[in-house]
Amino acid sequence: MRPAIGIDFGTTNSVVARLRPDGSAETLRQATGDVLRSVLCFWAGGDGRLRHAAGADAIEAYLEDPLEARLIMSMKSYLAQRSFTETRILGRAFTLEALVALFLRELLAPFRAELEGARIVVGRPVRFVGDAADHALAEQRLRAAFAAAGLPRVEVALEPAAAGHRFASTLDRAATVLVADFGGGTSDFSVLRFQPGPPRSVEALGHAGVGIAGDAFDYRIIDRVVSPRLGKGDSYRVMGKELPVPVGWYASFARWHLLSMMRAPRTLRDIAEVARTADHPDRLRQLVTLIEDETGYALYRAVSGVKAALSEAEEAVLDFAHRDFAIAAPITRAAFEGWIAPDLARIGAAVDAALADAALEPGQVDRVFLTGGTSLVPAVRRIFEDRFGAERVVAGGAFVSVAEGLALLAAEPG
Questions:
Q1: pLDDT digits (tens, 9 = 90+) for 40-65
Q2: Rounded average pLDDT over 147-173
Q3: Nearest alpha carbon to residue 1 among 169, 118, 115
């Protein structure tokens, strides 16, 4: 039988899975575990040539010398942005497709023998990240990146539908299932009708998605807790007139995929110029220091940690320090849920849109399957419990269900 492979290139983590001889799916393990962090690091070697690493090796290389390295995170979040054509890294130009292909080659390197002659299905969200997202362009770029990585004939499937196939393997009777797949950048929903068979059949009834997930929640924490300590909301003066410190800096600072771009000399000069007449110049100088010193990854870990802690406790402390800038801020779950309320409302609207697309009422859904790290946030789970009842909501396979479902799809006739 032709080998079947599923590849989940994610905003935060990426996973490769294959079909076992018994028809079940399994994750192919990287050297550091089931998943590979979707990050790249670049630095100049002793001979002056550009070096790179991916995943845990990229993070290790970056932490060894953050001032002389460039860490690229959340590449998937750029795919639907037509304005992003290329970036310069240590003097060399890279297109987005080239960056993604470079990461994919590292992701797939341990499994090249598995890929030979295989049918390969890769995932994509229902809706890519971005207010003006070009979804056709995003899929085109995704395919081009896989082709540049040596896989020109991949098939593409919706990520929540793939997760649904994995969940369906646990069902012993016909069921209508809403699958909610939460990634780092997107939240996607599919309504599927499963017949256990044999032969097993799956009918897609409806889909919806929104470019909001874990990264958006991280943004809210930084925006509310960190950015005000770096000058957001302050004023500065030009020719005697008081003006607000530009909020656009903080929108970029609080988003992982934009933060590394702020290291451009012009941006740093603009911030330093505003600091000269600002109410609190020290705050803006600290903002410059955090950008120049490439502290994004350390801040990312601190924010992700407090977010995870709030899924288990009613209060947690955001603890972050760099040079003379330090935060030890208690955050309550109630406050956090208030900050993310607009995001929760958009997620809820997307769930309702998926039901409308399927022409179903909540009571006609037999099971709800949640997957992805953001599904662990209590306020997110309540969206589904309020609509469908807690007894119908289950969760699992937070990081591997999409890849394993893609491998199951690759084994389907077609």
A1: 999 998 888 999 999 999 999 998 88
A2: 91
A3: 118
Q: Residue 277, SS3?
A: coil
Query: Which pLDDT belongs to residue 414?
Result: 67
CB 322 within 8 A of CB 230: no
- In terms of residue numbers, what domain contains 149? 4-173+397-410
The pLDDT tens digits of the residues spanning 64-119 come to 888 888 889 999 999 999 988 888 888 899 999 999 999 999 999 999 999 999 99
- Provide the CATH number for the domain around residue 27: 3.30.420.40
**Are 226 and 126 in a shared domain?**
no
271 domain-assigned: yes
The total number of structural domains in the chain stands at 2
